[in-house]
Write a structure and sequence with these properties.
It is built from 5 helices and no strands. The chain is mostly helical. Helix 3 runs parallel beside helix 5. It is rod-shaped, with a radius of gyration of 29 Å. The model has no long low-confidence stretch (mean pLDDT 89). This is DUF4939 domain-containing protein. It holds the Pfam family DUF4939.
């Protein structure tokens, strides 16, 4: 009989400790959530590249700026389509004219960043 009483007493103590740990866990979880909400979202202060009009002389600088921007903000470009869309949004003049058919033809290039880069560089990179 004494063993049963001792067992029940230990079970009560364990339940009390478990309840206390659950309360502490809930408090810590709430504190972490509050700290995360108050923490400023840090984004790299790199500037958005200037528009590219198709000038072969401007291509290396434009291309480098785009690669830098996307590499420093990977959370903004989770897919190939996001990268291609970003690059196309920065085109003007003859470069925009070149990209327009890509928006209306089969979407394979829009979803394939490597292929888009290959075609884009073949068109605008100075061969010299």
């Amino acid at each position: 009989m004494r063993t049963v009483f001792l067992f029940l007493k230990i079970m009560d103590q364990l339940r009390a400790e478990n309840a206390q740990l659950s309360q502490q866990m809930a408090l810590l979880t709430a504190q972490v959530a509050q700290m995360q909400a108050a923490w400023p979202c840090h984004k790299c202060p790199v500037a958005v590249p200037d528009k590219f009009d198709g000038s072969l002389a401007q291509f290396p600088a434009f291309w480098g700026q785009c690669q830098l921007y996307m590499s420093l903000r990977p959370e903004d470009f989770p897919s190939d389509r996001d990268k291609v869309g970003f690059l196309i949004s920065l085109l003007s003049g003859s470069a925009a004219h070149w990209a327009t058919p890509l928006l209306t033809h089969p979407k394979q290039v829009l979803d394939n960043y490597a292929e888009f880069c290959h075609q884009f560089q073949a068109m605008f990179e100075d061969p010299v």
